[in-house]
Structure formats: structure tokens, C-alpha cells
């Protein structure tokens, strides 16, 4: 739905061009722009602070360029943490670092999700902006829009910074990244910082689901790295 009906207009969005969509028995198959010549960063290595600034700019372009009303008409979901089943989250608590902190997060889930969901001026978010879902050079392009959602735009920053940066790197650049976003969308820096911290409930709860994922090889490493990075972000802010 996103590629067919939402991302085609306006054409200047930082997304791969979609040439055609074929319906198959396994679902739609997309013929997208070839990005193999673009520069990228391995998710396991993590992004740099310099990379983050350019990605924030691309997210701003998407947030300001995509119509929330149109997305609503297409049935795009809102406030993703509301979709997490409590019993499924409960099973993940014992599988993540700092179990006591995640236990407190889970106990505060209703309050935190309600606050996050109440944030005004929602936008159409990518939902899963991380190093594996974008290319950087010669320009940033975001792909894999499967987690698209209508919510506070700072939630995209929370997902990006908590999953794709080593904790030490994130700590040095997250405030400047949030400030950059605030300036671009015309919001006060303090308000965007508060919204960013509220948005961390999305990866904070999602990691409880991720920890239960059965994986091997490279995928297992990706899962473990994501768990460790998100846990560090939760420890820093909750």
C-alpha cells in the first residue's frame, strides 16, 4: 500500500523509485530502483554521528511531505505500541539485559504508551529506520516501509538512534540529532527532546518481542546487537 498509493507522490521523497508492482501468489513483488551502487553501512558496525544528520534530514522530508489524511484513508496504523500484546511482552522480560529496568518499563506501559499516543502533530513515520533499511551515498534513500505508522515523528529518531548506533556514539550525537529535527519541523528543541524520550517506548517495548525471536548466524548477531543497543538507550532514559 505504501509504495502503490502513498510514496509515489511527491516524487522528491528520499525513497527508491518504484517502477512496477507485480501481484503474485506470495503477495506483491516490487520492481524498485537499483541501489547496489549506493553507499551503505552495515547494521552490525553501526552508523556514525555524521551519517545521522543526513538521515534526520531525509526523515524530515518524509514527515513533512507525506499526507497524514491520505495515510489514514489508506488504513495506515497509528501509535504502534498499542498493538503489543501484554502476555507477549511479559515473556520477553527475562530475555533482555537489566531485567529490573524492563520490568519497571512494562509496569509503566499503559501510562507511557498513553502519553506517547497523545502527542500532537503526528506524521507518517517510516517505523523502522535503521542502517539495514537505508543507503547513504550519494544521497539517503529509505526503503522497507513495512512498519509504516502515524505517530510522533520523533519516534523515528528513537528507533534510528537506539538500534543503529553504538551506545557511546548515540550519547554523543542524540541531542544534536533531535535538535536538528526540531529546527527543521519548527518545534522547540526541549519539546522535541521530550517527544524523543517518549518515543523510546516504541523500541523499548519492541525489544521484548525481538528477544524472543529464534535466529541463527548473522541474523542472531543482528538481534543480539539490537537488544544490547536498545537496552542501553532504555537504561539512559528510563
Description:
The chain has a two-stranded antiparallel sheet with strand order 1-2. A two-stranded antiparallel ribbon has the order 3-6. It has a two-stranded antiparallel sheet with strand order 4-5. The mean pLDDT is 93. The chain has helices at residues 2-6, 49-65, 68-73, 86-92, 99-107, 109-118, 154-164, 167-185, 189-199, 201-210, 217-237; strands at 18-24, 27-32, 123-125, 134-135, 141-142, 149-151. It is built from eleven helices and six strands. The chain has 238 residues and is mainly alpha-helical. α4 (86-92) packs across α10 (201-210). β1 (18-24) and β2 (27-32) form a beta hairpin. The chain starts with a helix and ends with a helix.
Features:
238 residues; mainly alpha; two-stranded antiparallel sheet; 11 helices; 53% helix
User: What gross morphology would you assign?
Assistant: globular
Q: What is the number of helices?
A: 11
Can you write the helix and strand succession as a string?
HEEHHHHHEEEEHHHHH
Q: For the residues shown, what is the average pLDDT?
A: 93
Helix content: 40-55%
Question: What can be said about this structure in brief?
Answer:
Helices cover 53% and strands 10% of the residues. The protein has helices at residues 2-6, 49-65, 68-73, 86-92, 99-107, 109-118, 154-164, 167-185, 189-199, 201-210, 217-237, and strands at residues 18-24, 27-32, 123-125, 134-135, 141-142, 149-151.
